[in-house]
Amino acid sequence: MTLRFEDLAPGMQIPPLAKVVTREDVEAYARASGDDNPLHLDEGFARSVGFPGVIAHGMFTMAHLASCLVAWLGDATALKRLRAQFRAPVFMGETIVATGTVRSLDPETHRAVLEVWVTVERDGVTEYPIKRSEAEIQLG
Amino acid sequence: MPLNAELEGKAYPAISFTVDEDHVRRFAEAIGDDGTLVPPTFATVPEILSGLDRVVADEDLGMDFTRVVHGDEEFEWRRPVRVGEALRVQTVIESIRVKGSHEFLVLRTDMDDEDGGTVVVARSTMIVRGGS
To answer: What is the pLDDT of residue B131?
Structure first.
């Protein structure tokens, strides 16, 4: 099922997509992406630089945000641009939730600008591992 | 030790990156995708090889990798990346800036196909955290 440009309206919410971040996934991501910074793999190192434990790669969280958008779009090729501003760490076992809203539409080009973000609930506070950032899509 | 701001504008020699089917599958599995298409953020793989790995190893730049966090990432996809294709990947140090005790290194990576067409443009901001 592929989203059509006609289906969009400003303010529309993108269905949230939740994911539990596991150590296994982060280790697999480190191997597959080539980013083997010990901050994501080595508890002792992470603590030595001031974190309570290892954190997920920002790019791991961004990949989840892209998956959320592609699931909604029904077509990975509709995603034209995605920016992620990483502003909070994600620890192992936490649940990240990606979502966003439609900000503006261009009927001429069938492009739309989205506001997108990723949250995590920690100690009763909503943190933003990816703060409100921008994406651009183009639909048929 | 601060970054060597004179390296602003430095272009690293382009590399060739072939999009390997098994590599795409492992990346897709790690992020929970089914792998029927190349995940959009798979572009981080050639970007790291061309950019991050090079700046970390660049003794002229003097970047302490143990103090680096990823601040910002942007991908612009001109067309989807295809399994089996070879990309020409080149990274330029776009800017080096100091803000307070932190330094910001912005890398721009262009990924082009064999016909010279742009496939992906990536822009990555690395933050070198100051001593506290």
So the answer is: 65
Q: Report how many domains make up chain B.
A: 1
For position B84, what pLDDT does the model report?
96
Residue whose token pair is 């599995």: B29
Q: What is the pTM of this model?
A: 0.96
ipTM of the complex in this document: 0.95
* Mean model confidence pLDDT for chain A: 96
What pLDDT is stored for residue B34 in this prediction?
A: 80
Q: Do A28 and B79 touch (CB under 8 A)?
A: no
Question: For A86, what's the count of Cα atoms within 13 Å in the CB-facing half-sphere?
Answer: 22
Q: Which range of residues forms the domain containing residue B12?
A: 5-128
Which residue from B33, B40, B71 is facing A86, i.e. has the nearest CB?
Answer: B71
CB contact under 8 A, A79 and B77: yes
Choose the closest CB to A86 out of B23, B70, B132: B70
Question: Which of B:2-31 have CB within 8 Å of A?
Answer: 23, 26-27, 29-31
Residue A18: φ, ψ to 5°: -105, 150
Local structure of A31: helix, strand or coil: helix
Q: What is the CATH number of the domain that holds B31?
A: 3.10.129.10
